[in-house]
Amino acid sequence: MRTEARGSLVLTDGSFRFLLGVNYWPRKLNIRMWRDWDEEALKEDVEVMRSLGVRAVRLFLLDQDWVTASGDLNGVQLQRLRWLLDRLGDSGIVAFVTLLVGHMSGRNWAVPWAPDNDIYSAKGVEGTARFASAVASAVKGSRGLGGWILSNEMSLLRQPPSPEAQLALLRAVAQSLRSADGEHVFSSGDVPSGYAQRPNLVRGIVDYVGPHLYLYDDDPVRHGFSYPGMLELFSDDGQVPVVLEEFGFSSLQFSEADRAAFIYEVLYSAFAHGASGAFVWCFSDFPAEGEPPYEWRALELGFGLVDRDGRPKPSAESFRRFSEELGRLEALGTHVRLRRVSKVLVLSPYYVLGDYEFAGYRQWLVGFEAAVKPVLVAHQLLTMAGAQASIRHEPEFEGSEDRRLVVVPSAVSGLATTWRKLLNYVEDGGTLYASLLRGVGGARFPHESGTQLWQELFGVEQALRVGSFGVRLSGRRILTLERDLGGLRRGWSVSVDLQVPLYTYSVRPVDAEVLASLDGDPAIFMARRGKGRALLSTVPLEAALAYADSVGNWRPYADLYHAIASEAGVDTLRPSDPRVEVQELRGEGQSLIIVVSHWPGELSVELPVREASLVAGNAALREARPVRLDLPPRGAAALLVKA
Fold this sequence. Notes:
Layout: E1 3-6, E2 9-12, E3 15-16, E4 19-23, H1 39-52, E5 56-60, H2 75-90, E6 94-100, E7 103-104, E8 107-108, H3 122-139, E9 145-151, H4 154-157, H5 163-180, E10 185-187, H6 199-202, E11 212-213, H7 220-235, E12 243-247, H8 256-272, E13 277-280, H9 314-331, E14 339-340, E15 344-348, H10 350-353, H11 361-364, H12 368-371, H13 373-384, E16 389-393, E17 405-411, H14 416-427, E18 431-436, E19 439-440, E20 443-444, H15 454-458, E21 460-462, E22 471-481, E23 493-504, E24 507-509, E25 513-518, E26 521-529, E27 532-537, H16 541-546, H17 555-567, E28 580-587, E29 590-597, E30 603-606, E31 613-617, E32 620-624, E33 627-631, E34 636-642
Parallel strand pairs: 4-5, 4-13, 5-6, 6-9, 9-10, 11-12, 12-13, 15-16, 15-17, 17-18, 18-27
Antiparallel strand pairs: 1-2, 2-3, 7-8, 14-28, 19-20, 19-23, 21-24, 22-23, 22-25, 25-26, 26-27, 28-29, 29-34, 30-33, 31-34, 32-33
Helix pairs in contact: 3-5, 7-8, 7-13, 8-9, 13-17
């Protein structure tokens, strides 16, 4: 079985087959798998996987059980791995083998060839590459082998001293694996914030990016939209395939019924956004209460699709249902004959995934997940507005875009070269919407300028007092349109609840038109440049919504984004309820519309589609003309529409 990266997809034997998978330690053996080998227990698990519709598993080699005291690879373990790979393959399941498992489930484990677990040292890199080559050479012909993953979150085992150090390890292992086995894909397996998962750094080294997403949010709608947003971020505007390598929650943390609905929701979101697969963490609960690391990490006992006795949990039924529906979706040629087309581009500011001297805004905003939040909210609002959007790392923006709208959301700053490219984009007929941020809470950035093209691009000039931290925005403020915009009329307003204080700019229009005011002060401006227009907001709306504990009513913000998209001439496919997202996969003569509810309760939604047939999903098609669906909590539907 051959796997390969082609374009934005991972293909299996030359065809697209969504890698619907689970992360796997045996139910009865857990991390003791390799030293307490039990073939009957493994056979039981494989049979349960087959019954649930599992297509792929992520296996783990606990390195301290694989290398002898003399430093030699244990041949018995190689035989065991070959046996397991063949059993999986015979059941139609492909395995992605994780080689460097020094971290697992809340504990760091010994890497025998790397003293003090320094995997980035010369000895550590050499030993890891040698180990990878030996394992790959021994099992490359196994029936169930599907791919290689370097690590399980190696940054938690040892933080790399630099991007170069981690990429050196990644390159060395990639080269060793491709020399030993050129038939299977390879990825890094690191945490989302790690250098080894940044698409701009690893493209050309790995075959896909595999984020591990365990996201938390008090706003359930924002939480649901954040998963597809993250997948778009890591795909880097479709430039690299993405597999959601880990996601899930423990039944010991949350309602099992809601967890089951959440798994179904995320699987449909991943499929709709062109991911090549998704692996739930994990296959089973464990009975190992007194064993490390479960003794002090009790939640790790309850992440399974099946319980400690092997009985399917409600989450298993969600997984099984999605697996059954996959066949119908793939038979239509999804992501091959039917493809999702991005209509709007969101630029993720350079500091979210990049490192620049004296521009550590990611760290000052308390890390990657905080820094990326405004980007995810912008993507969410565009999706709510019915405009299919993708996300690109800002430094890779070239300026020549076939999309009518580019969004720069709540950026502390942009690269000087990016603003120049954006000016060219606007002059060529595009529409730019940018909002700028000068600080959040205690993180203030007064020694910064959002752009060097205030007047040339946006038609405004600075009006801040010398030495000021900026305009402080807090409490409830009213944003009001001063002219018609898209489908919104002059006088339309929205109340913005600034739960966290924000700092922003004060500017005066030079040749820009005032589109909106905040409590009477000019706040959103539009300048015409060449064939296009540039919109600038001094209200960092995306940050206000991103850093609020909870938003509640998203509709007015979706209305504003819809107006901006309409002003730019973007065709939209907007649902009647902003808690629902709609993605369209277009093909010759027909389209597949995928609808996903990001609400943990029931709802009914109308789509601007004249007629459709229900292909898959757990929604009920109430009316076909126009289409109205009744969706269960976090429900989904796939609709076939003829052109």
